[in-house]
User: What shape does this take?
Amino acid sequence: MASVTLTRVHKRYGHTLAVDGVDLEIPDGSFTVLVGPSGCGKTTTLRMVAGLEEVTTGEIRIGDSVVNDLPAAERDIAMVFQSYALYPHMTVAENIGFGLRLRGTPKHAIAARIDEVAQMLGLGDLLQRKPRQLSGGQRQRVALGRAIARRPAVFLMDEPLSNLDAQLRAQTRAELIRLHRELDATFLYVTHDQVEAMTMGAQVVVMHEGRIQQAAPPEEVYLHPASSFVASFIGNPATNLVPAEVCVNGAGPGLRLAGGVRVALPPRLQPAVGGRQGEEVLLGVRPEHVRLCTDAGTPYRVEMTELLGHQTLVHLRGAGPALVSTVDSRRAPRAGEEVLVAFDTECLNCFEPTSGRNLSSSMQ
Ligand code: ATP
Assistant: This one.
């Protein structure tokens, strides 16, 4: 096991700044997920930790050692990629034991380790098969097995589940969480899929345009996004981001939205936002915090609904800004119905419109 520390890491390809000053602490034994849209620099960051890309400036440490100049083979890491990269002419057992054979591990120790790993991954009955005789999910498990066999200090994974179908992805996600617990190793995992990030990561690192926007536990990223980018990228359906003006009247500090709709500022937001009277902010409201009421609220009309299963998305048009709400499908309204809408104000976030910074982050 080992921690991984990145300090002011930059990577430049010609005129492209792929990674722009990343500072990140990956604690020993943690499951850290780098997530962000295509091109945000997550694969480049992972490849620099692996030693497959040179660092332009900055420092990478694994444990206590600076590894910038250390070849990949000497970094005590194992990588698992989207493509399984198994040796087609070798059996499952030979593929799993390959790294150990290269290192000159004695034969009986290799055999014992192959058995142990096969047991861990449920590959016991497949050890004599060739990769072409396996399903995609089984091949991915063999690739994992090959990585595990060497007992590296750090596992680096780049979208390892993206070739699997939805059901197998969900199953393998759960297996990876279990495996991480069993191996007690440091996992650094790259994905563009926010569901993978939120379900697996103890630390979720959201990247955008080469920079880290937020590195925090998943609950915090969801409930207290550091920026409007994080608020819109994490969560499905996306958070409602609504322009608002800070105003104060007899009822205390509040926000005025399109159509003159007024929202009271919860006490949590008052110190950071209440003093900005007359300024524009961006209000972030998660769809589940847009409540459909019968007694009080702003009048809206249900434009359209989308049944997702136990929840239904409700698209709303009315006196205020257009909104999306998620409601329990058993109580979902129908298209065309008139409803009253109110926000769970305790769960609101306010962002600075130009930088996108969460105005209340410093209060949390
Ligand atoms: P994806 O999810 O699409 O893989 P990513 O977040 O992993 O995206 P990177 O692959 O790290 O993004 O790429 C970051 C930026 O660096 C992109 O603008 C990409 O075009 C650029 N880039 C990556 N590798 C190279 C390279 N070898 N030469 C030039 N530019 C590169």
Notes: The mean pLDDT is 92. The first strand starts at residue 4 and ends at 13.
